[in-house]
Amino acid sequence: MKASIGRCLFVLFIFIFFNLRGYDSDNKLTQIYPSYHPVMSDTSSYKLSIWGNSFNSPQFILSGHGQNIVQDTVTVVNQNLAIADFSIPSTLPLGVYKLIVYDGVMDTLYSCITFYKNVSGDGVFYTYTVAQLSQDVQGVWVGDGDNDSLMEVFVSGKDNTIHMYEWSDSSWVEQTVGSSGGYMIKVTVGDGNNDGLLEVYGVSDDDSVYQFAYNGTSWEKTVIGSGTGFMKSVAVGDGNCDGFPEVYAAGADSNVYMFSFDGTNWNTTTIGKISGTIHALAINDGTNDGKLEVYASAFDGGIYQFSWNGSSWAMDTLLQVPGVYIYGVWVGDGDNDTLLEVYGAVSNGDVYQIEWNGSSWDTTRLGTLPDQALAVKLGDGDNDGLNEVYVACDDGNIYRFEFDGSNWTSSIVGSGSSYMHNLALGDGDNDGFIEVYGANYDDRLYMFRFESIQPDIASDSILLPRSGWIPGGNYHIRAVVGNYGGGNANNVYVFVSVIDTVANSEIFRDTILLDSLPAKLDTTVVFEPCYYTPGSVYRTIVYVNYPDTNPANDTTSILSATKDAVVLFVEDANGYGAPNHPDSTWLIPLTNLLGENRVAYFGPTSSYTDNGPDIEEMRNVDLVIWNCYDYYVDPQLTSLDTSNIKTIIDEGKRVWLIGQDIIYSLLGKKGIKGRLYENPKALNNFLGTHFGLSSYYEDYYYGYDMKIQGINEASSPVLNVSSDFYYDGKLYPDELTPDTTMSYPILIDPDSNYTIGIIRKDSMSAFWAADGRGVDYSSGSDWESLIEKMLNLLGISTTGKSEEKEVAFQCARNLTPYISFSYNGKFTSNVFVYDIIGRLILKKTVYPGMNVVLNRLPQGVYLLAIPELGIKQRFVVVR
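Given the sequence above, the corresponding structure tokens read:
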């Protein structure tokens, strides 16, 4: 009890003394480590290393938010280093605190410590965009640059400016700090001029080092010095252990400069020189000897330590890796063993820990990133009470390395859409949690916040193009992305990549940013169009890299093989559908007439609610043949289907609709038989407006057999039709009355002379209300001839169907053990055979006039290619 009372009286005495006298302290405090500590569920111990000047019997107090915490114990290591232990209560208000010392004189280190909330349990980093700048962001720092006892985020970049972002209630507020005569490369915050207040420092490729001091209303800019080449890094600390902080900067001229303020002028000292451009600086006690040192990483593959021995600077090489750049260096306790280590980020993706063992430096590789490691920082970014190592990478990600006592493991924190230049850790929005901030080449400043509620961002499915054989052409790739977890997600990047598996090359890449994706919802994303050249096999990959609970569902992909198709045959096959799919009654004659590469197939749909092909797929052919088997009560054609059909006809594409009994459901008569005179056009039904149907007589015949016959330009012999529907249902043809101003008969029932098929006079569309079930569809049959006439009427040529160019290859479905064809090219060439996923199966050299026999192939789908002649041909082997 006496000790507690004494401590309270001591605090009271100091604050009365400070406030009443307005004491102007001598410089006593320069730097601390660590500058953050979690507030735990119980009282926790906080061991704080404090560097300063002439420590004798110091007394330390943490002050802020109406709280004053006096040290429990203090150990003076040397005149420049004291280690104090504090008891941090679980009720301590979160936020920024200052450190006060009384040791003959009093001094205050403002806004130097952040107390944050400890987060336990699983969680995930959420991505937020703090700002979008006009040019790429180069540097980022979290600190109290305007001395208002709140943290801000400072960024520098190619717009030559340092910006300050301060969180205000619900948004980030930007303030311009100042600018330079060139790119502002890096930024930091510290008391470089020893006036007891924090300033913002920046370095520029105009070779200068800048100080920006806030006077309460505006920022005052001072050029404190320069080098002989553009500056790339800046740090503030007591690197020479004289009890006063200095500003250190380095860059392209390979020098490390110290800028010290004497109260009137800035003085420049070169403390060392190496052989390469210096990219990063850090100041801390990397040798754990109680003295601060300056550390530099360079483009000559080295990490260097500069230490002051009282009379001169000594340089030591910690790491030397030939043939690489070392972009980043930092000092801290990344493995949580209470000792400080040096960390380096290397251009080959390696991340190193370099630890002093008392006589030499031990090097450990934490891991290797997939691209250049551009910056490294340490901190408790996930707020679990332990430090982690964070690395910015050229692949756009920030990576986190954690040590479990035996091994290092890495994970992705978050990403931008381009290179991640730099990063910083701190409570930039003053919410009581440490965040990770990323400076990206995409002009954005990102914040990555760890939260215990975890979303599950999934690349669910690809809607367009579809898998399998498709018409070649342009497709706006569409995919479904969902958040199936329990937390909302912000700034979700969705990526697409299209690979030509035959050429083994990427042909397309695009990115979409979703500002938000609420929990338990999904959305459809639409990318820019990609041209799928006919005659190849493409893998379309849609993926997200948002860190979540289930990385396994982050990627989805499909394989699409493209045809130079002029006809798309669609089967809406539910209800009274054909017994087999694809429907041989149609597909075999179409293939015989046009060649397999000119016919694409879609279907069958499985439910009356399923949509047919996407409108973009229909746009990539000249004619859509839509064979629709009615679903009896509900329309097989969805509202989207009818809209798409109308649209492509309006756009100049042609549609042949075989609507087996669709009038029954489309116009909703539900069993009312008889001639109906309502004009479908008056009902705004697409059968009237786009196919020229005036009226109809529904289900004029019930039976299993009937006859059909083409008339006018499609004149044909009488064809016998027999029901082979899946449900063994009867045939229900409808009589059609064409709008004579728009269409005319093309197919009849010769027994009744009823019209059952019409075609528009401009040949843009045709509608059949009956199907050729059970006909002879062999090559050269009357049925094939009727289809050919219809194709010709609808503008589709059936001449030149083989399309072999310089190779005779008629092997669409092969029933023999070998694949053979005659090569009629003019020059010696190579033949390649690939399987459906693009793997090379065999290669054969061929000569003009050669009869080519390929090795026995297993059952499957293959692609034959002769690249010299631009030939690609699909074939199927059936066993």
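The two ends are 93 Å apart (CA to CA). Try to locate this feature in the token string yourself.
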